[in-house]
Design a protein that fits this description.
The complex is a heterodimer of chains A (360) and B (360). Chain A has 360 residues and is mainly α. Chain A contains 16 helices and two strands. The longest helix of chain A is centred in the N-terminal third of the chain and has 42 residues. The mean pLDDT of chain A is 87. Chain B has 360 residues and is α+β, with helices and mostly antiparallel strands. Chain B has two domains: 224 residues, P-loop containing nucleotide triphosphate hydrolases (Rossmann fold); 112 residues, no CATH class. A six-stranded mixed beta sheet of chain B has the order 6-7-8-3-9-10, sandwiched between helices.
């Protein structure tokens, strides 16, 4: 409250109320409500077993009905062809059949009256589905470890780049390199991913070049293996790793590096003892962003993934827009979110950084 | 270990930071480089520590040529202007970093760190973070950290400049005492003549990449070798003119205030452009005394500093002459505008070549 009053004193009432309303709309309307709605959806299970049981019974009665009706038609034909003496017996049979048909029709009407639409029931069934469906479970686990792999590769690639930019490259070259890093990101993510499709596809640049040079005998099928997705994703999200790390290393006093060196430290120990501890918050932020983006990516696996390299996001998409079951889709989406939150908390624990370090 | 700076030059592009400088510093000396910023003193320090390689000449430590030997493999330790302590490490870890690099076990590191903590009088502070210490305490940590690697030479780059006056004066004595106790060669960089004069065995006064004079503090003050040294170290009243005549060890210049006589150390000849320097404390009011030089002037301003007062007097068409008078109870009252005679002995004045000031 004190902070709010302070804010009001500095910027006036109009600005303050605008900020409060905007933040409120943002928090409630854009974050809390949709998430709650999703959680609610995910917990509602549509149990269609009763529905289908009645359906089956009705079906059964219709079959009976058809059988009875065809029997009736046969008896009618027999009646026309029969001798006078046989007729009374056949007529009795016809009477029986007609009663039978009436009975069946009554039963069908009765069954149809008991038919009700399935009511959603609150349960964890939607979540359980993921763990009972072995294919979905495998894709879920693969998405997690592949995202972790993407994060790890991006970290290995970006730390040296970030260090070079922040501490080694002279001013002008650093600016130029930075520009070279940023410019590709002015292009749409989908187009960038398509560029990788050109490179990695079976008859693509990579395979043509390397089979041509005789480095590999057979073209490599990147796209039907997860490797294509991992390469594409690492490239796509590399900036989100470079910049947080660059920002933290940039604030490191260069004299500390020289002091460590002067005290006899080899370069790897300078990194291990001085640079990496200083860059921890940046590394944590970079890892979190890269992991979240990779785990939640849809375009990259859609473009670079083949039939056997499905991503969990694609499964979620299918539930929503093809399977027609938003409830299971919501449950899957919520599980992905939960995994991401767990990842964030783990990173914060591993790197011993607090929320205030991250938000800097 | 002796340090031998042998005809060393340092060139940055077109700019020459240090010009063909030669200097020997014997082991165990407290040696200072004194000069204004940009005079090349820090460049010399960085060349000795190994962060810069001289473009010309050689630096030998203990007789061994240091060319190609990195700062991590030289028997030197550097104390940075901003200290460059490692903020994420505890005090003792900071001090023991150089030992950690040398693969010394943790127990032994801790023991050695505690010894150094005692040496710099920081008992009980070992487990604090350096950020929890005061400026003076950090200073001591930096000294202990540098001494931990048992360097033959300790290089100090204006380490006291961030401290306040009282602490600075205290640390001067402390540094001097530590140097005496350890016997390590200290090379001290400063622009503060007070620091240089109070601590050093010898001082090199530098200007524009050239050493103007190497001498003890007394000699630097009493017998400046060049006009630059006379101007830079301590207060001096300059009188510009040309040499009119010379007789033995003396020369007479034709200043605006008439002929003035002083010692002719540089053996200038008649016609040379020269400056006669006289210290304010060597000027006296000429109350009928026999003085070699007497200037008729009037009191412009009197600044009482307590223990002494500075008298600003003005001769015929000249700028201020400062007379430093000790407040011994017999200096008498003076009024601005009062006409007085100011004088000094020829033995207290030095005639030096003027070109020395604007030498490129």
């Amino acid at each position: 409250m004190g902070a709010l009053k302070d804010f009001a004193r500095r910027y006036g009432m109009i600005m303050t109320s605008y900020m409060v309303v905007a933040c409120g709309v943002w928090m409630v309307g854009m974050i809390i409500m949709p998430q709650l709605l999703m959680v609610d959806y995910s917990l509602q299970h549509l149990d269609r077993s009763e529905e289908s049981r009645i359906d089956q019974q009705i079906e059964q009665q219709y079959i009976e009905l058809q059988r009875a009706q065809s029997g009736l038609r046969g008896l009618n034909r027999d009646l026309e062809a029969a001798a006078e003496a046989d007729r009374p017996a056949i007529e009795t049979q016809i009477g029986e059949r007609e009663r039978e048909i009436e009975q069946i029709e009554g039963l069908i009407t009765e069954l149809e009256n008991t038919f009700v639409e399935a009511e959603p029931v609150y349960s964890f069934a939607n979540y359980e589905y993921l763990f009972t469906n072995s294919l979905h479970r495998a894709i879920f686990l693969k998405t997690i470890w592949a995202s972790a792999l993407v994060t790890f590769i991006a970290l290995l690639m970006c730390y040296p780049i970030a260090f070079y930019l922040a501490k080694v490259a002279p001013g002008e070259r650093a600016a130029l390199l930075m520009l070279a890093l940023i410019i590709p990101y002015w292009i749409n993510e989908i187009l960038r991913t398509f560029a990788w499709l050109m490179i990695l596809s079976y008859n693509g640049i990579f395979n043509q070049a390397f089979t041509g040079l005789g480095v590999i005998e057979e073209p490599i099928d990147f796209l039907n293996q997860n490797i294509g997705v991992v390469i594409g994703m690492t490239y796509t999200y590399i900036l989100f790793m470079v910049f947080p790390i660059y920002n933290t290393i940039d604030t490191l006093d260069k004299n500390q590096l020289e002091a460590a060196r002067d005290l006899g430290s080899p370069w790897w120990r300078i990194h291990w003892r001085i640079v990496i501890p200083h860059a921890k918050p940046g590394i944590a932020v970079g890892c979190i962003m890269t992991f979240m983006l990779a785990a939640g990516s849809y375009a990259v696996p859609q473009i670079l993934g083949g039939t056997s390299s499905l991503w969990f996001t694609q499964i979620i998409y299918n539930w929503f827009f093809e399977g027609g079951d938003w409830n299971v889709g919501s449950a899957y989406a919520f599980l992905l979110l939960a995994i991401c939150v767990i990842f964030i908390l783990t990173m914060m624990r591993v790197f011993k950084v607090g929320l205030d370090d991250i938000s800097r | 270990m002796d340090i031998d700076i042998d005809n060393v030059s340092m060139q940055f592009g077109d700019f020459t930071a240090v010009k063909q400088t030669s200097l020997q510093i014997p082991a165990g000396e407290f040696f200072s480089f004194l000069g204004p910023s940009g005079c090349g003193k820090t460049t010399i320090l960085r060349m000795v520590s190994g962060f810069l390689e001289p473009t010309e000449g050689a630096i030998r430590i203990g007789g061994q040529d240091m060319r190609g030997i990195g700062p991590n493999r030289r028997p030197t330790a550097l104390i940075f202007q901003n200290l460059a302590l490692f903020p994420l490490m505890k005090v003792w870890e900071n001090i023991a970093f150089g030992l950690e690099v040398r693969g010394i076990s943790k127990g032994e590191r801790r023991r050695r760190a505690e010894e150094l903590i005692d040496l710099v009088a920081l008992q009980g502070q070992g487990d604090k973070l350096v950020t929890e210490l005061s400026g003076g305490q950090r200073q001591r940590v930096a000294i202990a950290r540098a001494l931990a690697v048992e360097p033959a030479v300790l290089l100090l780059d204006e380490p006291l400049s961030a401290l306040d006056l009282k602490l600075r004066q205290h640390m001067r004595a402390e540094l001097r005492a530590i140097q005496k106790r350890t016997g390590v060669t200290f090379i001290y960089i400063t622009h503060d003549q007070g620091e240089a004069l109070t601590m050093s065995d010898r001082i090199a006064v530098m200007s524009q990449g050239v050493i103007e004079q190497v001498d003890s503090g007394e000699k630097i003050y009493d017998e400046p070798a060049t006009a630059f040294v006379a101007t830079f170290v301590g207060e001096n009243n300059p009188f510009y003119g040309r040499v009119m005549s010379t007789d033995g060890p003396y020369a007479v210049i034709d200043s605006m205030l008439g002929p003035l006589r002083g010692r002719n150390k540089q053996r200038l000849i008649v016609g040379d452009r020269a400056i006669l320097f006289v210290r304010p404390e060597r000027c006296r009011l000429a109350n009928g005394e026999e003085l070699d030089n007497v200037i008729a002037s009037s009191v412009d301003r009197i600044d009482l500093e307590g223990a002494f007062r500075n008298l600003f007097v003005r001769g015929e068409g000249s700028r201020d002459i400062v007379v430093h008078q000790t407040n011994d109870g017999m200096i008498g009252d003076l009024m601005p505008g009062q006409r007085i005679n100011v004088g000094f002995d020829a033995d207290d004045a030095l005639v030096l070549q003027e070109s020395g000031l604007s030498r490129q």
